[in-house]
Amino acid sequence: MNILMLPFLAHGHITPFLELAKKLSRKNFHIYFCSTPINLKSIKKRITEMYSLSIELVEIHLPSLPELPPHYHTTNGLPFHLNSTLQKAFEMASPNFSNILKTLSPDLVIYDFLPSWAQPIASTYNISAVQLMTSGAMIVSFCHHMIKHPGVEFPFPAIQLQEFHDKRFRRTIEKFSKASKEKQVTAVNNDQPPPCNFELFNTFRELEGKYIDYQSVIGEKRVVPVGPLVQGVVDDENEHSEIIQWLDNKGESSTVFVSFGSEYFMSKEEIEEIAHGLELSNVNFIWVVRFPMGEKVEVEETLPKGFIDRVGERGLVVEGWAPQARILAHSSTGGFVSHCGWNSTLESLFYGVPIVAIPMNLEQPLNAKLVEEFGVAVEVNRDINGRLNREEIAQVIRKVVVEKSGEDIRIKAKNFGEKTRMKGDEEIDKAVEVLLQLCKESKLLQN
Ligand SMILES: C[C@@H]1O[C@H](OP(=O)(O)OP(=O)(O)OC[C@H]2O[C@@H](n3ccc(=O)[nH]c3=O)[C@H](O)[C@@H]2O)[C@H](O)[C@H](O)[C@H]1O
Asked: Which residues belong to any copy of the Glycosyltransferase N-terminal domain (predicted)?
């Protein structure tokens, strides 16, 4: 059976899609992995020898817009103000996608929340389609709850956002639900496959059982968990070797990894407070500092004066990108200062690393609440205006990584990591049955 996968053009979406592609290819599915050339280039080295025949990379080209050259056809490093332009350019690529389906005629399409046309186009070719949700069941059920029951408390009291995040998140939902109403897909006519009655989620019952059940009630479709879809440790010695050597020289669980994903860029104030917080914590750290593509910035100039000298061998500032999975899997890593993007959250849980949560935007504040409720994270509180504070950052890092008061968090994270790594393909095996059924429906309709 052939499956074509079309993730949104974001690194945080391509990662779970690629991990699902690898799992399904081991279950004898042939995968066409479709994205822009720049995105396919960035994942090539993660498609190791064993997948070279079962996962085929398929380029989809976006219309060339002057303000969006081809190396901007990804959210990784994209300047904030170009995000909507990228989404618009992707929406304009529907004819290219239609040609790809006509040429390859897969048995199934696995699509993402954007672009809006993947399922409707697949149905015109009588090809079944199912969505892979790249965020958790809690956040999706929270959004559905807010839209369907405005003003009614979310039935899980631990998920309460700090005021600053609550206001911003409600604005994001209003914007999103307005946009999705405008894109309401026209009804499918009856000789095409009906929209699928379930959705795949990058999650698993041990983490989100009660939210999976609630989403299956409040959402339109049944939830089929296929997670955790977590990138493995790609052992390419030559790349980033200086980071790993630096980490090898540190004590067990002595170091925090600090990273805020592939799309977020810290403000000057955030860099200032985080730098002083790391300094005050007296804990070893690897800190990824990154700026939008096209912005030529001297990292040292953005850091507090004398910061690099004062921290010396205790700290390593990495510009642009670090091998996150390899660092989280390393025995010297004892904590993850994270924005709680969904992939980072799952990776931290998978590798058993406790989280110092500093959510920045989107659904990250909710992910932070989820892992705090789960007992493997502590969130750094912001002031009423959302400002970070260096003492608060230092205090939470020391609690999570060093102090006795954080011992239960460290033990819980370690034990849950061991349990999660043992799960293997448990969720996938259950999902394969329903995916095979969808593929057979396509074949029946196409013959
Ligand atoms: C789904 C959605 O994706 C978005 O992606 P974003 O990149 O911000 O964060 P992650 O989901 O953690 O994804 C980031 C991915 O990039 C990897 N990485 C990142 C930085 C680095 O230096 N090295 C790495 O290997 C990391 O390992 C992870 O796999 C938003 O967060 C959103 O909140 C989230 O739910």
From this structure: 3-230
Indicate whether 338 belongs to any domain.
yes
- CA 17-89-320 angle, to 5 degrees, is 60
Measured CA to CA in angstroms, residue 25 lies from 18, 56, 201, 214, 428 at distances of: 10, 11, 18, 31, 11
Total domains in the fold of the chain: 2
**What is the rounded distance in angstroms from the CA atom of residue 123 to the CA atom of residue 118?**
9
Q: What is the ipTM of this complex?
A: 0.97
CATH of the domain at 403: 3.40.50.2000
Interatomic CA distance for residues 68 and 63, integer angstroms: 9
pTM given for the model: 0.95
Asked if 73 is an active-site residue, the reply is no
Q: Are residues 272 and 394 in the same domain?
A: yes
- Distance of CA 441 from the midpoint of ligand 1 (Å): 35
Is 279 in the same domain as 181? no
Write out the residue range of the structural domain in which residue 109 sits: 2-231+424-446
pLDDT digits (tens, 9 = 90+) for 258-277: 999 999 999 999 999 999 99
Best residue among 17, 262, 327 to mutate for probing ligand 1, ranked by most atoms within 8 Å of CB = 262
Q: CA 33 to CA 3: how far, in whole Å? A: 8
Rounded CA gap, 119 and 196, in Å? 9
**Residue closest to 288 by CA, chosen among 246, 326, 315, 317:** 317
